[in-house]
Amino acid sequence: MSIEIVNVGKRFGDFVALDDVSVSIPSGRLTALLGPSGGGKSTLLRIIAGLERADTGKVDIEGVDATRLPPQKRNVGFVFQHYAAFKHLTVRRNVAFGLEIRKRPKDEIRGRVDELLALVHLEQFADRLPSQLSGGQRQRMALARALAVEPTVLLLDEPFGALDAKVRKELRDWLRRLHDEVHVTTVFVTHDQEEALEVADEIVVINEGRVEQIGSPDDLYDRPANEFVMRFLGPVTQLGDQLVRPHDLQLSTDPTGIGVLGRVARVTRIGFEIRVDLSTTDGQSVTVTLTRNEFLALGIQVDSEVRVRLAPGSPATTVSAPAARPATPTLAAAG
C-alpha cells in the first residue's frame, strides 16, 4: 500500500532532523531511504511507523491520514537493527508473539508460523532460543515476526548494519527474493550505497533533513541531481571542471591522441579492477578504473605518459564542480 509523506518537519531542540520533507512511496515497491548518518533517514522511518510524531506535515498510509494514529493502529511491521528479540522465547514463540497478543486461534497461529519459518528458512531452528542463532538467522527471525501479522507496510531500520560484510551480502540477496514473493510495501533505511543500489526499486536520498533526489538506482547513479548525490552514490573523480565516474574514463598511450595529457602516479589492484591514479600536466589528480584486461592491453606502469578522456558513449553522469546546494530539493521522477 502506498505511503504519502507531505511537508513533514521534525526538530529535536535546535536540531532540524527533517525539513519540509515530501515523499511518495509506491505500493508494493522496495524503497530505500539512503543518506549519511544523522541525515534524517531513521527519523522519517520512525514517523511513518508512529514511533515519533512529526511537528508539521502529515503521513497517509493506504489513503488514510495516519499522522496522529498510534503505531498499533497503522498495521506496519518494524524491524530494528538489533533484532529486539524476546530472549526467553523460542524462535517459534518469537514469530508467533504478535498473533498471540491479537488472540488469533491456535491452529491459525501454528499454520502461519510454520509458513513463515519455511519462508525464511528457519523451520529446523523453531525450538531454539535466539541466543543459539547466528546474527543472520536472528535477523531473518525478526523479519518473520514482523510479517506474521500481515502488515500492509514493512519498515526496516538498518536491518543488516550489525552484521559482517559476507552475511550482509547474503541477506541483501535474500531480502530481494523475499520481497518478490510477498510483495508487501517495504521501506528500509541504509547508509550503504551498494545495498541500496542492489536491493531497492526506488531510492530516496536524504541529507541534512532534506530530500536531495528520488528515483530508480539507474536514475540516481547515471543522472544525479547534484554534486552531493553523485559523490554519495559511487566513486567520483574530477577531470577539468567536471565530476565523472572513474570507470567512464578512457586511457590512451598515443601521445598525439585525444584527451588530457598526464602521467601515471600509482597503480592499485582491487579485486577484478585496476585503479590508475594520474597526475595531469596542469597538476590535477585523476583516478581511472580499468578492468585487468584493459590495463594489460595498455602496457602501462608507474611514470608512463598517457592521455585521459571521457569514454565515447558514456552516460551523462557529469556534474559541474563545485556545485552549490539548491535552495529546494531537486526530485527526479521515479523510474
Automatic annotation (TrEMBL):
Keywords annotated in UniProt: ATP-binding, Cell membrane, Hydrolase, Membrane, Nucleotide-binding, Sulfate transport, Translocase, Transport
EC number, as in UniProt: 7.6.2.9
Residue ranges, annotated region (Disordered): 314-335
ABC transporter domain span: 3-233
GO MF annotations, alphabetized: ABC-type quaternary ammonium compound transporting activity; ABC-type sulfate transporter activity; ATP binding; ATP hydrolysis activity
Gene coding for it: cysA
Domain of life: Bacteria
UniProt cross-references to CDD domains, sorted A to Z: ABC_CysA_sulfate_importer (cd03296)
Pfam families (alphabetical): ABC_tran (PF00005), TOBE_3 (PF12857)
Protein name according to UniProt: ABC-type quaternary amine transporter
Species: Micromonospora radicis
GO cellular component entries: ATP-binding cassette (ABC) transporter complex
InterPro entries found in the cross-reference section: AAA+_ATPase, ABC_SmlMolc_Importer, ABC_transporter-like_ATP-bd, ABC_transporter-like_CS, Mo/tungstate-bd_C_term_dom, P-loop_NTPase, Sulph_transpt1, TOBE-like
Signal peptide: none
